[in-house]
Amino acid sequence: MKISDLEYNVSVDMKALCTRPEYRNCLYCLGKSDIPFCHLNPLHHFLRSLATLETFTNISLELLKQKQPDLFMVYFEWVDVVGHQYMKFAPPKMDWVSEELFAKYADVMRQTYIRQDEVLGELMAVMSPDTNIFIMSDHGFLIGDERLKEEKFTTVGLAHHWHHAPAFLAMAGPDIRKSSKEIKARVMISPDSASSARLAH
Question: Are the C-beta atoms of residues 47 and 77 closer than 8 Å to each other?
Fold first, then answer.
């Protein structure tokens, strides 16, 4: 099987989406770029990270079904990228977010966590029962009332202002035992995170 057979293709009419007022600064929508991606357009970031999520998942599943390696690592940027673009719209509504945009995007982060959790479940389903699993993030993320109040901080150059120092680490497997030491971590858990819940127990 070729890698191209496992690629996830996003079928979206980018030009039709350019009519939305929130994409008014998009270079592609303004006709200043022939490439259907602009770092100023949050939807472009969403679609690209969705494509990488699904493509990396397909590749990982195919490899794991062929062989159970001694070490297997995969990186997903999905939650991080979507968080930078859409965490500002998550409940509770921030004062500077319009009712229209809140109604349109309020559920994006919850659905993002759900899909990432589903991917985790799909990978766990094809792993050997004696697999030790480690899930970690490179940083935490501001949520709730701690979120930044200014829209400009969602630009690529200032994205790090949304980061929070404590990261996330979860471990499970036959060689992992519970520790008496508390590991402090900050993570926004979706109530639908079934796979993550299995890891916690």
Answer: no
Alpha-carbon torsion 31, 33, 35, 36, what sign?
negative
Tokens read off for 43: 């939807």
How far is Cα 105 from Cα 100, in angstroms, rounded to an integer? Answer: 9
The C-alpha atoms of residue 133 and residue 137 are separated, in whole angstroms, by: 14
Q: What is the pTM of this model?
A: 0.79
Do you find a cis peptide bond into 92, omega within 30 degrees of 0? yes
Smallest CA-to-CA distance from 190 within 143, 135, 132 is with 143
| Digitized pLDDT (tens) for each residue of the chain, 201 residues in all | 565 666 667 667 777 778 888 787 888 888 888 887 887 788 888 888 998 999 999 999 999 999 999 999 999 999 999 998 899 999 999 998 999 989 999 999 999 999 999 999 999 999 999 999 999 988 889 989 899 887 665 666 778 888 887 788 888 899 887 765 555 444 444 444 455 555 544
